[in-house]
Amino acid sequence: MIQEKYEQWLNHPAMDADLKEELLNMTPEQKHDAFYTDAEFGTAGMRGLLGAGTNRLNVYTIRKATTGFAKYLNSIAEHPTVAISYDNRFKSTDFAVESAKVLAAYGIESFVFESLRSTPELSYAVRYLHCTGGIMVTASHNPKEYNGYKVYDSTGCQMIPEMVQGVIDEIKALGDELIDSPKLNARQEALIHKIGADVDEPYIKEVMGIALNPDLDKSDFKLVYTPQHGTSIMSLRPLFERMGYDVTYVEEQCTFDPAFGATKIPNPEDPRAYELAIEYGEKVGADIAISTDPDGDRLGVVVNQNGKWILMTGNQTGAVLLEYVYSQMKEKGLMPAHPVMFNTVVTSDLGEAVARNYGVETEKTLTGFKYIGSKIHGYEQTGEKDFVFGYEESYGYLVQPFVRDKDANQSTVLICEAANFYKKQGKTLVDVLDELYDKYGTYDESQQSISLPGEEGKLKIQAMLKSLRENVPTDIADCKVIRWEDFKTAKRYENGKEEDIVGFDRSDVLKYFLADGSWIAVRPSGTEPKCKIYYCIKGASKADVEEKRKNYYAAMAELTK
Question: Could you give the residue numbers annotated as active site?
Answer without folding.
Answer: 140
